[in-house]
Amino acid sequence: MKYKLKLTTIIADDIEESIAFYRDILGFEMVEKFYQDAGGLVLMQSPDGAAVELIDSKAFETGFWSIGVEVEDFEAAIEELKAKGCSFVYEPTTLPLGKLAMITDPNGVKIAIIELTAH
């Protein structure tokens, strides 16, 4: 299975300030912006394609949240990870943008396994 590092997720204390930082200081471009009752999500992309997902939610502690890796075949990736003994922090689920599950590495870093249906 091929795992492609896709993004880093950060819980923002002030999402507008974070957007301005990544846009004005680092030269990232806003790719997508979603807002719901629970908060917002903004995807920022650097000129070389690296992405930062900013989440505005008081439900989580501010700071680094996870890294995300994209897979082409979500079900096969989940089967492979289970066969290799990975336990899931978040069980596989379907979201508006695609499919998501989350495991942790030996250091406790959350790794989101994602298959996007819309790019």
Secondary structure topology:
Blueprint: E1 4-11, H1 15-25, E2 29-36, E3 39-45, E4 51-56, E5 63-70, H2 74-83, E6 88-95, E7 98-104, E8 110-116
Parallel strand pairs: 1-4, 5-8
Antiparallel strand pairs: 1-5, 2-3, 3-4, 6-7, 7-8
Features:
119 residues; alpha+beta; 2,3-Dihydroxybiphenyl 1,2-Dioxygenase, domain 1; eight-stranded mixed sheet; 2 helices; 8 strands; globular
Describe the protein:
It contains 2 helices and 8 strands. By secondary structure, it is α+β, with helices and mostly antiparallel strands. It is globular. The model has no long low-confidence stretch (mean pLDDT 91). It has one domain: Roll (2,3-Dihydroxybiphenyl 1,2-Dioxygenase, domain 1), CATH 3.10.180.
Q: State the domain count.
A: 1
Architecture in CATH? Answer: Roll
The rough form would be described as globular
Helix and strand pattern = EHEEEEHEEE
> Biggest sheet, open or closed, and with what strands and sense?
8 strands, mixed
* Number of DSSP E strands: 8
CATH class, named Alpha Beta
Question: Can I get a quick summary?
Answer:
By secondary structure, the chain is an alpha+beta fold. The protein has helices at 15-25, 74-83, and strands at 4-11, 29-36, 39-45, 51-56, 63-70, 88-95, 98-104, 110-116.
